[in-house]
Amino acid sequence: MSTSTSTPSPAPASALTPHGAPSARAGHPASSRLARSRRVLPVIATFVLFVLLFGVGSLRYEGFTSGQVVANLFIDNAFLIVLAVGMTFVILTGGIDLSVGAVVALSTMVAAACLRAGLPAPVVILLVLLVGSTLGTVMGLIIQRFELQPFIVTLAGMFLARGLCFVIGVESISIKDPFFRSLATGTIELGGGVVITWSVVIALVVVAVAAWVLHRTRFGRTIYAIGGSESSATLMGLPVARVKVAAYAISGLCASVAGLLFSLYMLSGYGLHGVGMELDAIASVVIGGTLLSGGVGWVVGSVLGVLVLGVIQTLISFEGTLSSWWTKIAIGSLLLVFIVMQRLFMRRGA
């Protein structure tokens, strides 16, 4: 008499929470709620920090709490918000992308050079998006196919993109296209004298789409599962290779969108644009509560991280007597504090 054994089928990605952990149906509801609350705590801490910094500014400086000051936080950091969104996808998989700042500069140079050559603005926009997403896809394929460290591959991508900028031109190229200039100077009235630019609208649309993809789609749940444990995600039958490559493609696409927004902000293309911007994006994502090891994080947290950096810069600007380098000192200190907090949360969770 023969006996047969049945092998349990892999758990579908839909059985995972947006953080790659088993859902409450698969485990004890109380423990699942506790795990979720621990993941939300860093985002709450970032929000509290934002409120405290803004409160300090309101007590110290007159007019700091005006609606336009808040709007300016989004206007001056729209490109960084988009850049942080793309970086969130990569860091959630446990990777890193050091090329995004150089891709921003390359995007401004491609846009400015093509507009100067007489190409229509819609064609230029599509070309810039194609360049950024292609570079991200190639880096993702190299990382996945040859099992190389993302740090090394994206560092090479950073040098490549920065070098291509100076192949296009060594001088700053002014953007005089009427469509770009009208988009850059156009404003939207919110009432009470508060206005925002179209760059803010584009950035918020990118944030909304990214949040929906990460928290409401199978692709997003796979991103979290890979960051939680790539080997476990592979054993579950999830398309690990395809999703990892797609994460870097999304990062490259967001970097090119950020480059277009930065070209609207500066109305120029220059090979030295965006120097160090990749570090600001990484800092915003980490301060926003995304673990560098992957698997835990929120898009809204990354946005809050950008706003925290913006408030620090605004405080120093209002002070007037402090050097702008104090912004970097404050960001570095905050980054260290949040990394230590992440380690403590992970130990308590374990």
TrEMBL record:
> Which cellular compartments is it found in?
Cell membrane
Which keywords appear in this protein's UniProt record, sorted alphabetically? Cell membrane, Membrane, Sugar transport, Transmembrane, Transmembrane helix, Transport
Q: Name one GO cellular component term.
A: plasma membrane
Where does this chain mainly localize? Answer: membrane
Q: Which residues cross the membrane?
A: 40-61, 73-92, 124-143, 150-170, 190-215, 247-267, 279-312, 324-345
Topology in the lipid bilayer is annotated as: Multi-pass membrane protein
The protein's matches in PANTHER family, at most eight in alphabetical order, are given as: ABC TRANSPORTER PERMEASE PROTEIN YPHD-RELATED-RELATED, INNER MEMBRANE ABC TRANSPORTER PERMEASE PROTEIN YJFF
**What is the name of the protein in this document?**
Monosaccharide ABC transporter membrane protein (CUT2 family)
User: Which species is this record about?
Assistant: Terracoccus luteus
